[in-house]
Each structure stands twice: as structure tokens, then as C-alpha cells.
Amino acid sequence: MIEYIKGEIVELTPARMVLECAGIGYELNISLNTYTFYNGKPNGKIYVYEVIREDAHLLFGFANPEERELFLMLTSVSGVGPNTARMILSSLSPAELVRVIDDKDETALTSVKGIGLKTAQRILVDLKNKVKPIEGMAAAGAIRSSATDTAVAEEAVSALVMLGFQKAASQKAVRTILKGSPALAVEQVIKTALRML
After folding, report:
1. Distance between CA atoms of 95 and 56, rounded to whole angstroms?
2. What's the whole-model pTM score?
3. How many Cα atoms sit within 13 Å of 144 on the Cβ side?
């Protein structure tokens, strides 16, 4: 129904964006890759997929049509819902996901929270002939955040909690990651934590 929304980025976190267009603020659930793409930008054009459920109307936003297409392919697989698809796209960039499917890499998929071996195998079987290599897509994490260590930690924990992880476990994982690599950008901290939790 909605192809894209173009407007001012009012709020941006690693899991959520509020985009104002014509005086209306649209809340969009986004992946870490989309966050990386829009981080530091005042305006944006975000591609949208609308999920209408009995109890909620949700908007999922994507930096480009290719990421949205991968999201739709993932949600077409039995047992993969919108939040699981977003989790996969937060753990792997679209280009990495295409490579994982091409290489039939079960291990990479099972490293994503909520993806067991059977679901990983189903994704690989269902999507093996559907995905095509994505040219020109940068890997996530290419943009460095200028935030301080404390702000990075707080933002990473907040994003992990929004993605459904417990706060205490998220804080512990983020502390461990930043202790070992204090210069990591928030996107990289979250990606590493997604593999740990």
C-alpha cells in the first residue's frame, strides 16, 4: 500500500525510526543496516512494508528496495515472521545474506538469535533460486559513529531491548564487547551482541 515515505528524520535508533512527512510522524521498525545507512542524515526516503495484524498496524522501513525484497522473501518462508526477518537483516547485510544463501551456509544463519537448524535449512531451500547477487551494496558498519563509549553502550543496549532481548543480558554482552574493542561503532557492537545472545 505504501511504497516509500520521504521526509525529515525526527528520531533514529538502531531498531526504530520516526520520519515526519507532511506533519505526520511515521514510526518505522528498521534493521541495523537501515540505521547505518541513515545515521547522521537529517532527511531520508525510506522504502516501506506494512504489516497489518489483528492487534497492530506496523511499518517496516528499508534503506533500499533490495533490502525490502529480501525481507519479503524471508517472511515468505514458513516459520519466519517480520521480527525474525528484521533480526536476520540486522545480523547480516543484504549482500552477506545473499552470499550465505548462495553458499548454503547454515552456520551463519543459525548464529542469528531465534534461528534454529530447521529454520535455517528451510530458508536456504526456499530461497536458493530466488535471490540474486546485490551489486554496489556496502557492508553494514562502514559508517563510524562519533558517539562516546557511554552513548554507544546505552544505544546498543536500548536497541537490543527493542529487538526483544533482556536488559541485563544485553548490558553484560555490550560491556564485554566494548571491553575488548572500545573503538567499535554502535552498529558493530549490536551485530556482535546479536551473535552472542
Report:
1. 31
2. 0.70
3. 6
